[in-house]
Structures are given as C-alpha cells and as structure tokens.
Amino acid sequence: MRARVRGPAFAAGVLLVIVVFALPAVAADAAGGAVPRESIPTYDVVLTLGRDGVVYVRETITYDFDRGGEQGIVRRVPFRRANRLFDVRGVSAGSSTGAPARARTMRLLNDLQITVGDRRREVRGRQAYVIEYAVGWAFTPYTDHDELVWDAIGTSWGVPIGDAVVRVESPVPLRHVTCRAGSRGATTRCLGHRDGRYAVDFAQSALAPHEGMTVRVRLPKHAISVAPPHYARPHWAGTWPGTAALALALVAVVLAARGTVPRRRMGALLAAVGALLIVSDAADDVLDRGPWAFSLGDRTLAGLAFVIIGAAVLHGRKSETARYAADGARWD
Fold first, then answer.
1. I need a labelling partner for 107 at 20 to 30 A (CA). Which of 76, 95, 198, 232 fits?
2. pTM for the model
C-alpha cells in the first residue's frame, strides 16, 4: 500500500520540477526560433522632462505589416516594476498615413497595454503611428541628485527594429545622461549626440526582437520638482508554471488521502524543501528592493505546492497512527 501511494507522490514531485523549470525554457526557445514577417523600420522617441517631474513621451513608430493584415499595433508601457508604481496617463494616438488610430488602454499584468487601431478594419503595408502619454512618479530622489531610469523603447516588441532614435529634452542642462541598448540588462552603449545643453539624441540600429533602449538621466537636486516614489503592496506574480505546480499539489493531496500515506520522514522533507523555496524567493525580492517588494512568484508557488504535499503526508500519517491506536484499544 505504501508503494502504491509513494510512487504517485514521487511522480508528482518530478512533474512539479519539470513544469516549473523545464517547460518555460522550452517555450522560450520556441518563441525565439520564430521568424517575424513584420518589422519596425524606424522608431523615434522624444522624452521631455517637465519641471513638474512628469516625463512627457512622444513615440513615432513606422510599422511594416508586410503582406499580412492586422488591426493595428500594441504598445506596452510598464506601470509597475517589482513593487514600484508609475502613473501612465493622458494616452492619445494618431497616424500620418491615414491608418485607424483609436487608442484603447488596458492594464495587463505589470503593463498598460495601448492598442492603436480599429477592431473592424485591417491595415496592410507600411503605416506610421504617433503615441503620446505622460509618466508620473518616474524619478527617484536621492540625497544629492534625482534620477530617471526609463525604457524609452521597451523589450516587448516581438519584431525587429531597423533604426531607433531616442531624444531627451530637459528644462535644465543635461550633464549626466546615458543610454543602453539590447535585451533587458544589456550594457551596449547607444551612439549619443548632444544638441546643445538641454537635449541629447541617442541612436541605435538593427535591434532584434525583444531588444530595446533604456535611458538613465541624473539631474541636480531640486532642479525639478520630484514627487516621492509610489510602491505597491505584495502581489501575485506567478506565471502559469507556478500556478500549475500549485494545482498539481492539490492533486497530490487527493492521492495521499485515498490510500496509505508514505513515511512521516518524506512528508517532513517535502515541507522543508517547500519552505526553503519560499524563503529564497522572498529573500531575493526583499533584499533587492525592500520589505514591500515580496511577491508570490513561481518559486513561492512551487514551495507552497511542496508544503501542501508534505502537510498532507504528515496529516495522513497521524490519522493512520490514530486509527491503528483506536483499533488496538478496541481489541483490548
């Protein structure tokens, strides 16, 4: 009987590991191997830093739909990074080529999804779009300066970008401004050119899918009005692998409840492994971004799964022991 339940429990544990760690890598490889037919020949961004601490953004995107017809484009602007919140507002859009340019917004996970187009009309060929919006709470105040780090061109675009230009305009002289291009965390420097004391242009060509440009600006303290950063409370950040792992844990609980459970030591081991996963996930967020940065990520969900299975094994073992004790007392 023990072997009959121990086998499914072990198989469930192996399946958890495969779901959490192996399948996302396979999905990423499959996504990376796809060759997009569409492209963005030119992408121009103007970041205007207001004295009120708000960043005013104007994006001019030339999108080539190739031969396929689409209903428009989708731009994803982050309103949340970890526990940091941004106020993205005043979204508007237009098109110089006559393409439908109605802007619709929807919050999806950590991004504000801006859909530009018309659900009832398809567009083809090369079209030009202009998207404008404002971003508040984007500057981070420090003791001796105020800093802006912003993805001027995000990495959510799944098509290549031919030529990209990002212009930063400021009401005060720009002395410390840099740009990095590539995938998230890349260190490739963009080609920069100063246009006087108050503006800097950065250029980058041949951006691959899911590559972008990130700008960092440091301004003297009190040069502009900077509002305090806004932070969110802990949130659910797990993706489908972590959620699936948690669901499999419930299946394992049902399996453990239907028969004789494994040894008590196995349950304690599963619970301990789960607790370690939860602690490691929380520690990464908290140590990096502060006590409010903890989120329920995939490692936390996998840890909860193991804790649930371990608790079910321990509870089943106790119930079995109690049943044997009751049977012995009845025979006595």
1. 95
2. 0.64
